[in-house]
Amino acid sequence: MATVYFSTARTLRWDYHHSVPGKLEALLGKMTFSERFTKDEWVAVKMHWGSHGAFRIIPPVMIRKVVDAVKATGAKPFVTDTVRIMGLDYIDVANQNGLNHLSCGAPVVLADGLYGRDSILVKAGPILGDIAVASAIHDTPAMVVCTHTKGHINAGYAGAIKNLAMGCVSSSHRLEGWKKGRGAMHCHGELGLQWNPELCTFCEQCKNVCPLHSIEFKDGTFSYHEKNCWHCGRCSRVCQEGALTLPQDDETFQKSMAEAAAAVLSTFKKGKVVYVNFLFQIQPECDCMPVADVPVIQDQGMMISDDLVAVEQASLDMLRAAPALPQSAAEEAQIKPGDDILFKINPRPMQLQIDEAERLGLGTKKYELVRIEP
Question: In Å, what is the CA distance from 292 to each residue of 181, 326, 328?
Answer without folding.
Answer: 25, 16, 12
